[in-house]
Amino acid sequence: MPRTESAVMPSLLRWLGLAALVIVLDQWSKAAISSHFAYGDSMAVTGFFNLVLAHNQGAAFSFLDAAGGWQRWLFSAIAVIAAVWITWLLRKYRQQKLFCFALAMILGGALGNLIDRIAYGYVIDFLDFYWNGQHFPAFNLADSAITCGAALLLWDSFMNKAEKN
Fold first, then answer.
1. Catalytic site residues?
2. Among residues 55, 61, 33, which one has the least CA distance to residue 45?
3. Strands (E), 25-119
4. CB-based contact 144:126 (threshold 8 Å)
5. How many domains does the chain have?
6. pTM over 0.85
7. How far is CA 136 from each of CA 8, 32, 59, 66, rounded to the nearest angstrom?
8. Inside any domain, residue 81
9. Tens digits of per-residue pLDDT, 103-142?
């Protein structure tokens, strides 16, 4: 039986809606931090966690942060290409719930950070965890969604492999 657009749209919209929720929460949290902190300000929350306003012109863990500006457009292009590819995957594999949930989280995170790159030239980071005086690179909700989505993709791949054996 051929697929109809009406059969594809509700499940695709569910996943795109999840991605949109990630974007909204990410952008809201960044706006809240930016309105209460000046660049570089930090507030201790626990003995291992601070809120801090940081700007990251690079990628994960500040990779290429000081590369001179060209990385803004490289990482923006990668995010756009990834968004198109992920949307295609969401449409093609819409019945695989864990796979699509993971992809939607990654999509929302990538687009949340893309909005920052285009609007400001950097990504706003504000979650600062540390242990024994060693700080991990600051990150944000979009980064968290990408990381959780990637972990779920790994889990899904192991689950599917176990089911095939």
1. 125, 143
2. 33
3. 42-44, 49-56
4. no
5. 1
6. yes
7. 41, 22, 14, 18
8. yes
9. 999 999 999 999 999 999 999 999 999 999 899 999 999 9
